[in-house]
Structures are given as C-alpha cells and as structure tokens.
Amino acid sequence: MTVIQKIENNGCGCDDLARLGSLISIDEGLAQIARLTQAVRETELVPLSQAVGRVLAKPVRSLGMVPPFDNAAMDGYAINTGDLSGEGPWELSVAGRVAAGHVPSNTLKRGGAIQIFTGAPLPDGANAVVMQEQVLCTGTHVRLHDAVKRGAHVRRAGEDMARGKTIAPAGRLLTPRDIAACAAAGHAEVCVTRRVRVALVVTGDEVAQQGEARGAAAIWDVNTPMLCAALATPDIELCSVQFAFDTLPALRAQLDALSQQVDLIVTTGGISVGEEDHVKPALAELSAKIAFSGVALKPGKPVSFGHVGRAVWLGLPGNPLSAFVTWQIFGSALCRFLSGQAQRPVRRRHVVLQHTLHHKPGRCELRLARLTGFDSAGREIAEFAEATHSGRVSLLPEMDGLLFIPADTEELPCGALVEFHPF
Ligand SMILES: Nc1nc2c(c(=O)[nH]1)N[C@H]1C(S)=C(S)[C@@H](COP(=O)(O)OP(=O)(O)OC[C@H]3O[C@@H](n4cnc5c(N)ncnc54)[C@H](O)[C@@H]3O)O[C@H]1N2
Ligand code: MOO
Predict the structure, then answer these.
(1) CATH number at residue 183
(2) Which of 95, 177, 207, 263 has its CA 20 to 30 A from that of 194?
(3) Which of 297, 390, 402 to mutate to test the pocket of ligand 2 (most atoms within 8 A of CB)?
(4) Could you give the ipTM of this predicted complex?
(5) Same domain, yes or no, for 319 and 258?
(6) Counted domains in the chain
(7) Which residue spans within 185-325 are E strands per DSSP?
(8) Residue-wise pLDDT tens digits, 260-298
(9) For residue range 349-381, what is the model confidence (pLDDT) as tens digits?
C-alpha cells in the first residue's frame, strides 16, 4: 500500500532553528540575497543570433504586422469563393502564377484562378486558396468538386503579431523560443544587460590541479572545474579564476583587488571555524559587510554572503558536494538577481519517495535524488542516496536533483510527498 504523507508546509524545511544558534534558514538566506543584490545596470546591444542566454534589458515589441501580408498556407490555387455559386463542380480558368518571395503580377479576374505556392502573397481579388490535391488541373483550367470557405488556407496579415505587440518583457532570459519570436518581429539585435563579471577564488593548501604532480597530502581540485562549468553561461563573464593558499595576507590582497574589478566574488573553502580558515578574517580586514554566515542546511552549513568593495561575495564551503549544492541553491539565485532576470526558472515540486527515508534531526538536509518514473496517480517517484556525504561527488552524475528533508524529520515513509529541487 502506498502511504501518502500530508504536505505540512512549502518552506525550505529549516523550521527547527532554535538549537542551531546563529544559522538562518535556506529561505531566509535566499530572501536576504534577493533584498541585498542590485542588478547590473549597464546594457548593450547584441545581434539576435548571439542573444540566447542573455537577459533582456528592454521589452521587445513587434516592428510591424506578422505576417506582413495575406499569404497562402498551401500550394494550390488562389480563388475568389464568390465564383463558386450554385452547385459544383466548378471550372475556373488559370491565369498566372505566384511563388513565395514574388509579388503577384496580376489581380484575380472573375471566374479565374492563379496558381500559388506556400508563403506567396495572395493576389488582389482572391479570398481563399484551394489545395492542388483538391482540384483537377487540365492545363488551362482547374475543376473543383467541393465548396471552399472564404479565407481557407490564407494566413492573414497580422494574425500572429500586431505592430507593437510585446514579444518578450524586460528581465526575460532569452531562450531559442524567444529568439524565434524576436526574429519574426523583425529585430536584428536586442538590448540586454551586460554580462555579470565574476571571479572565482578556490582556497586550500591541499588542492592540486589535474594534470600536475600531486603531493602526498594533496587532493584533486574539484571546485575549480565544477564551478567554472557552472559559471559557463552566456550571461556571465568569468573574468578571473584564482587559486589561494591558506595565508591571510595573500588572500586579503587577492580579495581586495577583485572587489574593485568584478560584480561577484565566489570563494570556496576557508570559511569554517578552524585556524586555517582565512576567508572571513580577510574580508573583515577589508571592512566587508557580511549579511549571513551559516545556513541550517546539510550539506553546506558554512555558506555565507555579503558585500566587499564594489562586489557581492558568496562564500561556498570547501567540501565539493557542499559547494555544488550551495551553488545550486544560492549561487544560481544570486546570478539571476545580478543579471536582472525577472523569472524564477527552477521551481521546487513534490515527488513521492520510493522507499522509507531516515534522517538525523538537526539541519534541513538536501539529499541527492534520482527520478525513476511515475506512480499510478501520475506523480514522480524519487529514489535517493542513503546519506549525504559532503566530500563525495561520485553519485552526482546520475542524480536529477535534491530532496528537501525538513530539519526535525527522523523518518519519512515510502510514498511520502517531499519537496524536490531539480538540477
Ligand atoms: N569544528 C568545526 N569544523 C567544521 C565545521 C564546524 O562547524 N566546526 N563545519 C564543517 C562543515 S559542515 C563543512 S562544510 C566544512 C567547511 O569548511 P570550509 O568551507 O572552511 O572548507 P575547507 O576546510 O577549506 O575544506 C573542507 C574540505 O573540503 C576539501 N576541499 C576544499 N577545497 C576543495 C577543492 N577545491 N576540491 C576538492 N576538495 C576540496 C578540503 O580538503 C576539506 O576536506 O568544515 C567542517 N569543519
Ligand atoms: O555543511 Mo558541511 O557541508 O555539512 O559538511
């Protein structure tokens, strides 16, 4: 039997914050990011063919009617239905021919037909097109057996877009669908927000770059390639990718320089409470304003956010799964706000658990999950990792998203509905 658990709330699940000290909830963290992030103001014109993934700074409106003139929707014959009075069949004399891209050289005479091809302008005097499969053509004449409705197979001028119709609003992240509509509306270029300038600073004496020699106590750097990949979107200019050793003066100098050059500094590692965690001390020396420092979630508890110089700062934990998850939840939202995007692309939805889930009460847990199909009620079913290990990434390639396990939950039964954040 499938047990359906009632959905208690639609929040992030970090409801039991009392015993987690200064940590805030995921939703509060997102709200602070929304409140404290200014969108980039500068705009630029880009060719429409290069605009996918950019954010519209001004609405796009149709420059004229689309289609611009009445035209044929089928290959056949342009006729006037007024010529088909009484009982059929009717015979019309063919006088002329018009193909797509050509202006009709003659108007339709009474009792006549003009051969026409899909997309060609409808000749004056015609009010319908009859498909060539529905006539018998004798060379000089066409014979029709069936009546034709006025307007049949005619695409009317302006039926898709009136002049001035808003095709895409400001704040829209342009997709190929938007590009199609903007192209039909006659635009060669669109006005978009300039790309968000981002710097990535990966800290840690222990990380080594793939392809180089790795010391006895070193590990491969996961965060640099992972976050470079996540930042490789058309609305972001990844200006600088830096590595930082765990030394305060050098890190302070790096962050100081970047804080005058970019809109967003993303750091990984060095934000926990150990003596080797120098990111927050460095920011403190630079008089940074820290909005939040720690969120009641697992993985990713130390995730932090603030402002330094002219930049916003997002501090991700060093553990690679923690960095990935916090980028998914906070980093992508932050980039949306910086680039002026109006819509929220990822919406949490509810999925059904494939089997019983166990969780240690404390922080809201974002557990890796994979969608496996649908139940008999058409709801998505998720299977999930047994536990969350913030240093492990081997499951990531086969996972589809994150289950939001509320903080105070100990067990959720098979069939329970749980919030799911797709990647
Ligand atoms: N006493 C406490 N210790 C820790 C706490 C705590 O509350 N009290 N929190 C733990 C949690 S939770 C997390 S998450 C980590 C986060 O620490 P940091 O953000 O300061 O990260 P690091 O200490 O620099 O590194 C953590 C871990 O990740 C590995 N790492 C770092 N960078 C990379 C990279 N680019 N690629 C692959 N792996 C990376 C690093 O070697 C460490 O193993 O703190 C806990 N400690
Ligand atoms: O928050 Mo940490 O990512 O739990 O290990």
Answers:
(1) 3.90.105.10
(2) 177
(3) 390
(4) 0.98
(5) yes
(6) 4
(7) 189-193, 196-203, 207-208, 219-220, 236-244, 264-268, 289-293, 297-298, 304-308, 311-316
(8) 999 999 999 999 888 888 999 999 999 999 999 999 999
(9) 999 999 999 999 999 999 999 999 999 999 999
